[in-house]
């Protein structure tokens, strides 16, 4: 097994993590910027990267800006905005060809840093504000994205289930913010919010490729123009379990297929010693084609095409998703609940344990072939404060016993049942 | 075993044709943990009318290739996922217009997993009961796609373009069409298209090629395949012109979805000629509509398109078409503006400088793709079934000229060949 080894440094209050390797044809660069998820900042933070990707001081027009990326052999550049635990993370990514494969006279890694550093720290401005036309069109763009969530019913149901489940928690907020807040954002207010964000966000920069920590530190020094005075970290979520009666929420839309989603809380988060047991619990429940949900909801009863569960170790929650015939709501719900009960009762076969361990082991090993996945795994450590190298997690997985899975089941509480149904009475 | 080296890409591909006709390719990726393998048949949703040499002509129900893919996972002793999970492999399959692909990825037990893959695909097991059961599951899959506006707008476009060619059939068929599927029709299709001479095994990752070839040789030698005659795929004469200029479907969407494209007039290309036209058209579309172009920026500034705007070109010896578009507040205005803008570009042609940059971007994208074993396996097989070679893409890109791209643009963008598909809220 290749060891995942990041060399660590810091420049200008940005934590730097570099993995020198020649295994890939590219340099993978990720910059994570995280701030606490809060109603006051969620929308401006979400809008910021959309405006940043419109133009910089040296490439103020969007066309020039994008042409510059194409000159770097079509360097992959993108960003995502998402939630992790109680934080809103903006992740910028670049994926640039290693110069040795093309006839480039300048270092492509150097040029990529020139580009990324400018995107984040030298946006085009006018009168101490972002360019007004960019703010106006990106505000519109984000509004459309928020409104478009309803187009994909699987995603819509998952979002709605979260929203209901966390209606008294900032986690209810969508990572792209709130439509109502967008309208009040001006080029000035956004620019101010951006400066606060740049000052206060936790910044972690990762590079995987044929380079060194010293080279990356020098590139950050040269290309990121920041005057930060501190380098805040992350506080992991602490889950307090409460015994409440699960809430059922039903919503009607013009759909052919019903979407039945369940939201569950667990007190086990990434930093917990029981984390490996929770991975097993979720794997046996619904992550694989051999899992209880797939076998019982789909294969035995032909009720669904998909029926799966997902464990979020940063928030301490499990989401179950399925797409069913509307008339089969009660039957499907009963079968899903029966799977939860069966796990809690310890109905776990030797075969289920072996298969699930093998599958988790495989995905942890496979991760090491992808630069961005190795980066994402390491970032868990930054988010949770828990240093758990892959080798350690692998050995913890091997040691989990059925009784540990039952103990993990004991930390799980069904919180919300969400059903998206058709217009007519089903 | 022959070794084909591609110095520029720093890759060596190993190939052998088994005595029963099966093509086997191995691409070792030193340093990679994962091995990814695909076992594919040149058989997809369009192959619904055919004649195997020495047998009679036959038409089969729509959606049967996909149905067959689902049923292959069932063996007398149960679901083959169980076996893969025990061996730590993550398995899956998919069906497209012209191929069905079975696959796994694993980091351990590679040879064993390869044997499982080859054996289960070469061992059909259909019963009346397991065929009936699958109809419920696939019915839900069809229902899920029926609610998906992106899928609907895409198929709407193909249905608008093609009058008789089976590319217009939804890959999964309809609830009605699959109701006619029986174990007998499944065996008929299986026997016609799953002969080793119609199949390709591709293995990429941290493997020793000779070990793979040895296993496959022994495995195939133990199975008694009789030589099979050629397969005639029968297609009714498809008119050159589009079937329907405009097609509209209703689904709840936040904004209308508008996808349009041009039906290629000349079909029947194959091999390098087809690959060359494919790459030239894709480059032309990039130069015309990519996010760094004036047309894209103008449409974005007019709020006629947003981030989701995309374009693609799909080509096969029997059909070829482009598809472009996205969400828009005003489909008619979008079409009107884009037509005027495209005509302006067509008359002047692209600029040399833009051409060079776009070509570099394509080369960069191609090299980045080679980081991902999944993509290599899928793309290699897709090209191979169409008579092309994925590893010849780089020299083709390098041989393209500005004139080639300008000429291709003028040839492809023929407004008489335009079809438009819309999804709007009811």
From TrEMBL, chain A:
Organism domain of life: Bacteria
UniProt keyword annotations, A-Z: Hydrolase, Metalloprotease, Protease
Keyword Hydrolase appears in the UniProt entry: yes
The keyword Protease is assigned to this record: yes
SUPFAM superfamilies hit by this protein: LuxS/MPP-like metallohydrolase
Segments forming domain Peptidase M16 C-terminal: 185-358
One Pfam family matching this protein: Peptidase_M16_C
One GO MF term: metallopeptidase activity
Protein name: Inactive metalloprotease YmfF
Organism for this UniProt entry: Paenibacillus aceti
TrEMBL record, chain B:
InterPro entries noted in UniProt: Metalloenz_LuxS/M16, MPP/UQCRC_Complex, Pept_M16_N, Peptidase_M16_C
Domain Peptidase M16 N-terminal: 62-174
Domain Peptidase M16 C-terminal: 181-361
Pfam family membership, one: Peptidase_M16
Protein name, per record: Peptidase M16
